[in-house]
Design a protein that fits this description.
The chain is of the alpha/beta class and 224 residues long. The chain has one domain (23-222): Cytidine Deaminase, domain 2, CATH 3.40.140. The chain has seven helices and eleven strands. Strands 9-8-7-6-2-3-1-10 form an eight-stranded mixed sheet. It has a three-stranded mixed sheet with strand order 5-4-11. Helix 1 crosses helix 5 (176-186).
């Protein structure tokens, strides 16, 4: 009798592992949020950055991935200052708190490695270092993921988080037409080796924003 051999899906097409049975903290995505992040990762040839929108009563559950206007290359993202300000204002207007929309920084890598670059590390510390907690998460086109939680309470510290899809909450279906419209509106690809001012591409800080945003990233000023 002939046997049909089922080959495993390529890594970039496989979903993250199911939720663990224990109480290990994990960065969890609804199927909608995960699908949108995957779509953004594959629709173009550059990095894409944005913010995870977390559930009010479950801050490590991402319900949406939202982009802002940005200039991108295969190795860098640079957010538009005014677009970040507008995003924060919009989130406050709909009743969200900063810990729901300004604590989880998501971005993609167009290659196989999800390991953060030196610029990623510097940006994460500079922008989010004053927050009581924050997460940097990266999805690579090859399917690899990276997520790290850092916290400033006491002596401070950090820990790697597994990345999971959580099917238990209610979620909406995919909307690729709307996602593509958002991509075209916000993502402005640039030549790979272009320089901005005196900075090389791998030195560009995506959050090279004015001090007016400092309060949103500083729990000591906002969460009182």
């Amino acid at each position: 009798m002939n046997r049909i051999l089922k080959r495993p899906l390529p890594r970039n097409l496989r979903p993250p592992d199911p939720l663990p049975d224990d109480d290990t903290p994990a960065l969890r995505f609804t199927p909608y949020a995960w699908s949108k992040l995957q779509f953004m990762c594959h629709v173009g040839d550059t990095e894409i950055g944005g913010f995870g929108i977390a559930r009010e009563d479950d801050l490590l559950l991402i319900e949406d991935f939202v982009t802002v206007k940005q200039h991108t290359t295969a190795i860098s993202v640079e957010f538009d200052d005014a677009a970040v300000a507008d995003f924060f204002d919009d989130q406050i207007d709909v009743g969200r708190q900063p810990e729901q929309f300004a604590r989880i920084w998501l971005h993609t890598h167009p290659g196989d490695s999800s390991h953060p670059s030196c610029t990623d590390e510097t940006t994460f510390q500079r922008v989010f270092g004053t927050c009581s907690w924050s997460v940097m998460a990266i999805l690579a086109r090859g399917g690899q993921t990276y997520a790290r939680l850092q916290f400033s309470a006491g002596p401070g510290g950090s820990m790697l988080l597994p990345v999971m899809i959580d099917y238990s909450p209610a979620f909406t279906g995919s909307d690729q037409e709307a996602w593509l419209s958002e991509y075209k509106q916000n993502v402005i690809p640039q030549p790979v080796f272009k320089q901005r001012g005196h900075k090389h591409e791998d030195e560009i800080d995506p959050f090279d924003v004015d001090d007016v945003f400092d309060g949103v990233f500083d729990d000591r000023e906002v969460l009182v």
